[in-house]
């Protein structure tokens, strides 16, 4: 069975603190996937990040843990809260996937190089076949800290996204466009 895993589509990622973002269509592509799964394709699993870092836009106090309206869970859809990058650490996600008979996952979310990447890697290591809907994911300029490499120019969000997807594809995931996943 194929499940859909939506990671961190929450209002805290609308904060300007993240900087420039690639792929303004990530949410609409994710909504297309969600509609297909809600239409009978398989179970849906929502994850949100509840930061424990002071000042983070992803804290309940900042209001950043609310799901984006177009991707909010419906009653009965599984929802998980995490405080680290992986959707599997500190949650019942793996056990629930296995209990539902899920063997394959389609994953999308925010941000590509962080929670999406970490969750995809863990899912693959747990033995799930993972498809990454790369056009239903996005990265931000804030992901471009190059302080470790003096003189290196920061990458833009599109480069960050492409690098993250490239590191995952063919080892941990099969990266595909939403249209390909949906057969169109």
Automatic annotation (TrEMBL):
Signal peptide: none annotated. It holds the Pfam family Isochorismatase. This is Isochorismatase family protein YecD. PANTHER family: ISOCHORISMATASE HYDROLASE, PEROXYUREIDOACRYLATE/UREIDOACRYLATE AMIDOHYDROLASE-RELATED. InterPro entries: Isochorismatase-like_dom, Isochorismatase-like_hydrls, Isochorismatase-like_sf. Its EC number is 3.-.-.-. It comes from Pseudoruegeria aquimaris. The lineage of its organism: Bacteria, Pseudomonadati, Pseudomonadota, Alphaproteobacteria, Rhodobacterales. Keywords: Hydrolase. One of its GO terms (molecular function) is hydrolase activity. Residues 4-144 form the Isochorismatase-like domain. It is an enzyme of class 3 (hydrolase).
């Amino acid at each position: 069975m194929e499940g859909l895993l939506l990671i961190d589509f929450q209002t805290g990622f609308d904060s300007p603190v993240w900087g420039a973002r690639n792929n303004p269509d990530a949410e609409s592509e994710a909504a297309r996937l969600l509609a297909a799964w809600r239409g009978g394709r398989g179970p849906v699993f929502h994850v949100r990040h509840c930061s424990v870092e002071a000042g983070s836009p992803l804290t309940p106090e900042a209001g950043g843990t609310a799901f984006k309206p177009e991707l909010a869970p419906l009653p009965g859809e599984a929802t998980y809260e995490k405080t680290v990058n992986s959707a599997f650490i500190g949650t019942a996600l793996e056990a629930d996937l296995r209990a539902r008979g899920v063997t394959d996952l389609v994953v999308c979310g925010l941000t590509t190089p962080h929670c999406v990447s970490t969750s995809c890697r863990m899912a693959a290591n747990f033995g799930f076949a993972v498809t990454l809907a790369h056009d239903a994911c996005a990265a931000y300029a804030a992901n471009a800290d190059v302080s470790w490499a003096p003189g290196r120019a920061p990458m833009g969000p599109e480069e960050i996204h492409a690098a993250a997807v490239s590191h995952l594809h063919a080892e941990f995931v099969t990266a595909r466009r939403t249209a390909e996943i949906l057969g169109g």
